Amino acid sequence: MSDSLEYYQNQIALTRTELKNLRQKLAALKHEHSEEIKTVKTMLSGFQCANCIETAAAYISNQQSLDTPSPSEDISYSPIGYIETTFENKPAVPGQPLVLSNAKGVVVLNTDAFNNPEHALSDLEDFSHMWIIYHFHSTASSGPRPKISPPGGEKSQVFATRSLHRPCPIGLSLVKIHSIEGNKIIFYDVDMINGTPVLDIKPFIPLYDFPKPSYSYMSFV
């Protein structure tokens, strides 16, 4: 029994000695490594790049210009459909939808936009109204006007009116949904001419789309 105890005591002492030696070697390696790092830093500090800062700045600027779209970049959209109405020209169209609130129109979705257009409309029946975003194709060629003379009013800046003559000839109308049949949406409150290209439709949500109104008479033109 005493022989076994002495054996294990010797093994423990030997292990402690080995651990001490390992610690000393690690400390020596750490010191050697730190000295090598200092040497490398000293060597690198001797190198100079006269145009490094300018080159880096030019590279960053170039990358930013590639990632940022140009303000003059053209944006192109394809209509998702068109509007069918009884109004064939602009003079016949009501100035505001409520003038002929019972007039019906139809949004016809193109099959090019969706393979199954009716699937894109399946949940729209849950809403009473929708927004139609469309292109003023009949007035696009006449160009924008910075000031507009509304009927019975004085000239006002175009962005304070609902004029057709805008820098981007895009129309926005809130209409009442009557029914949906396949790829067609029948609606009331028409104020577009026949064949008007449709860019998008969105449901009207009163909680978000009906803030407390504050407007002037000019807002209705």
UniProtKB/TrEMBL annotation:
<keyword id="KW-0949">S-adenosyl-L-methionine</keyword>
<dbReference type="InterPro" id="IPR036414">
    <property type="entry name" value="YaeB_N_sf"/>
</dbReference>
<comment type="similarity">
    <text>Belongs to the tRNA methyltransferase O family.</text>
</comment>
<dbReference type="InterPro" id="IPR036413">
    <property type="entry name" value="YaeB-like_sf"/>
</dbReference>
<keyword id="KW-0175">Coiled coil</keyword>
<dbReference type="InterPro" id="IPR023370">
    <property type="entry name" value="TrmO-like_N"/>
</dbReference>
<feature type="domain" description="TsaA-like">
    <location>
        <begin position="77"/>
        <end position="213"/>
    </location>
</feature>
<dbReference type="InterPro" id="IPR040372">
    <property type="entry name" value="YaeB-like"/>
</dbReference>
<feature type="coiled-coil region">
    <location>
        <begin position="5"/>
        <end position="39"/>
    </location>
</feature>
<dbReference type="Pfam" id="PF01980">
    <property type="entry name" value="TrmO_N"/>
</dbReference>
<protein>
    <recommendedName>
        <fullName>TsaA-like domain-containing protein</fullName>
    </recommendedName>
</protein>
